[in-house]
Amino acid sequence: MCGHGLVKNGKTAAGTQRWLCPQCQASSINTRAHTSEIRHFKIFIDWILSGESADHLATRLGVTRRTLTRWFTLLWFITVPTATDPHRVYDQVFIDGTYFHKKCLLVACTQTHVIAWHWCLRESSYEYLKLLDKIAQPLVVTTDGAGGALKALQAKWPDVTIQRCLVHVQRNTFADISRNPIHPAHKAIRKLGCMLVKVYSPEDAARFTTAVHHTRITFADWLKERTYRSTIPPGQVPKWVSPNQKWWYTHRNARRALKRLEKLIHARQLFVFLTPPGGVTQDLKSTTNLLEGGINKQLKDLAGNHRGMFDEHQRITMDWWLFTH
Question: What pLDDT does 179 receive?
Answer without folding.
Answer: 80
